[in-house]
Amino acid sequence: MSLQLSAIPTRTARWCALHPWRAMLAWVAFVTVAVAMAAMIPTQETTDADYRLGESGHADELVTSAGLGAPITENVLVSSPSGDLDRAAAESAGAALTTAMRGIDGVEKVSAPQWSPDGTAMLVAVQLAKNHDDAAPLVAATAAVQAEFPDLDIREAGDLTVDAAVNDQVAKDLSSAETISLPLTLILMLIAFGALIAAGLPVLLAATSVAATVGIIAPLSYLVHADATVTSMIVLIGMAVGVDYSLFYLKREREERAKGHSTLDAVAIAAQTSGHSILVSGGAVIASMAGLFIIGDTTFNSLAVGAILVVAVAVLGSITVLPALLAKLGRWVDRPRVPLLWRLNKRIGRGGISSRVLAPVVGHPALALAFSTLVVVALAVPALGMKTHSASLETLPASIPEAQTLRAMSAAFPTEGAVAELVVRAPADSRADVASALRLVARGAAGTGLFVGGAAPTQVSEDGRTSVLQLAMPFEESDPRVDDAIRQLRSDLAPAALDGLGAEYAVGGDPAESLDFVDRQHQRLPLVIGFVLLLTLLIMAFTFRSLAIALVSTVLNLASVGVAFGLMTLVFQHGWFEGALDFSSPGFVIDWVPLFVLVVLVGLSMDYHVFVLSRVREHLQRGLPARLAVREGVADTAGVVTSAATVMVSVFAIFATLSMMEMKMMGVGLSAAILIDATVIRLVMLPAILVLLGERAWWPTRPTRPVGDVVEETEPAYELASS
């Protein structure tokens, strides 16, 4: 089975090298058709119903089916820059706002101006018609009233303006990241190869893999609805693995040519070695990404589909069109050379700077392992105190004016902050009993101190069967007391008043949705971790025929994840480097980020892990003793691993500079963890463990040289593969 798996990239590369124009045209046709699908088939995006989860999802379903969905609302806040609001001027501004808003098409209702409890702010609420999504006339009216009352501070924020502002900021951030990442990746490839064509091939393969995947996602979205973030995920993962796989293949092909092999021989050897590693590492990445399905969330399902697909496409391109391009280009792949970079590459030599670190690790493995373990444990320990919560007002960047306005509204009007919804469905003839029970719930809720007294009027559906009671909490959404309030409402207050009525009820609202998501994630995160680690363990055991190697790989993956979680906790929960990274700590990590970082980190780190182990095994198969095989194998691959990790760290670090907190967390977690993983874990811990274990690392069988499996450097590899 191992021989058959190893033969797949070899036979594929042989055919593509013999028929380069067919292979290249087939790849161009594949990418063209895929991109055309995106143009012809509209992508089915996720809907609100796709995100329903747990009790809050049931509450939303009850509200929607009863036609009681929250109306689209825009709010205008009137305050004073000095803090002392002139009541008469504010009343005049409120009247002007009311008159202006009522004259705008699509406005159904303008509420009477509402004063804050302390009299320092006034709020005008504007309700829009269903399916009305144009806030521009309202924004213009607000600006006109602001110009009329220059001594007041008049700001607008609501469903439409906040969503538009956040979407614009996300698009701006992603556009900035993509604009910087492509030339940055090309520059790093130029440094790695010292030649323009060699540097461009990995970027070209990665870019075409991403384009093809984005096209294929369009028809697939009718099976798994596409989340708005899936394209970003495809770009992120596609560029990382596409560049890595090409880098592994191209470096090995150039290395074999430098030993005197012909181009076709070098392509064949690269296929047997690096091509096989690409298949294995691609399988490990796909297995890791598949863990996202376990959560059962529509966003993670969409991200998993996009990531798995782009990895599969990148693997396909690496073992088909890349060998064809290399065979056709021949030694022209090293042209045109960039003189300074080319000489620098030659001067650094085999293994690059990383190989200098290897000598003391191999010479003193126990000391190296002890020191590196202390570093990893110290970075991972803070993860034990990690707190997670959904994104909220606190995580929106201060650069978004509407977010600042929302914060001011929430501070002045507590009912505009965290709000829970108790939804009750009962027979219409029970309407009076339900209303009485809801009044009882409201009084009990106010008595707990966790809810604001004076609940909003109960909404009742036209058929009288569904009632919705809104209960505001005087806390920010990330405050732990909000979760306590939701749990008490669900477990005590609502059952005590409603259980005897035979009614169906559920507690929903934004805070309840966040609580349900976090609870689901906490329940299933151990399953995801177990699934990912078990699959990668099985892949490693099957590939290397070694239980010890499989266990070592699993432990090192856990170490990488611990470092990532620990660093995110230190930075975003405890506020380390706030000034340098330009953010204010929310006191928690956004709930979906750790899981996302987990699967991406395990998947990507397995790329160079498999590459290193494969090279060590090659030397063992050629008869080298274990210690020498480790030294030679790690030295052979250190430069490639350093280049691959540098690309990933640099690209992810770009996300750490963006304004949206989710992207910043993802960028910091991945870039810092991959840096530690590629240096401390894979360059120190891995070789130290392999040296200490010696022959036992490959238990139960030591790698031997099967006939025809690995080609000796002195044999005509291409002729052998063709015979």
Task: Describe the structure in brief.
The chain is an alpha+beta fold and 723 residues long.
Notable characteristics:
four-stranded antiparallel β-sheet; alpha+beta; Multidrug efflux transporter AcrB transmembrane fold; Alpha-Beta Plaits; 66% helix; 723 residues; five-stranded antiparallel β-sheet; disordered C terminus; elongated
Write the layout of secondary structure elements.
Elements: H1 2-18, H2 20-40, H3 54-65, E1 73-79, H4 87-102, E2 107-110, E3 114-115, E4 121-128, H5 136-148, E5 153-158, H6 159-193, H7 196-220, H8 230-258, H9 263-290, H10 298-319, H11 321-329, H12 339-348, H13 354-363, H14 365-380, E6 388-389, H15 401-412, E7 419-425, H16 431-448, E8 459-460, E9 466-472, H17 480-498, E10 504-508, H18 510-544, H19 547-573, H20 578-581, E11 589-590, H21 593-621, H22 626-656, H23 661-693, H24 717-722
Parallel strand pairs: 6-11
Antiparallel strand pairs: 1-4, 1-5, 2-4, 3-4, 7-9, 7-10, 8-9
Walk me through this protein's architecture.
It is built from 24 helices and 11 strands. It is an alpha+beta fold. The model is unreliable at 706-723 (pLDDT under 50). Among the domains are: 1-40 and 194-348, Up-down Bundle (Multidrug efflux transporter AcrB transmembrane fold), CATH 1.20.1640.10; 73-164, Multidrug efflux transporter AcrB pore domain like (Alpha-Beta Plaits); 404-514, Alpha-Beta Plaits, CATH 3.30.70. The protein is elongated. The strands form 3 sheets. Strands 1, 2, 3, 4 and 5 form a 5-stranded antiparallel β-sheet that branches. A 4-stranded antiparallel β-sheet has the order 8-9-7-10. Helix 1 (2-18) packs across helix 2 (20-40), helix 9 (263-290) packs across helix 18 (510-544) and helix 21 packs parallel to helix 23 (661-693). It has helices spanning 2-18, 20-40, 54-65, 87-102, 136-148, 159-193, 196-220, 230-258, 263-290, 298-319, 321-329, 339-348, 354-363, 365-380, 401-412, 431-448, 480-498, 510-544, 547-573, 578-581, 593-621, 626-656, 661-693, 717-722; strands spanning 73-79, 107-110, 114-115, 121-128, 153-158, 388-389, 419-425, 459-460, 466-472, 504-508, 589-590.
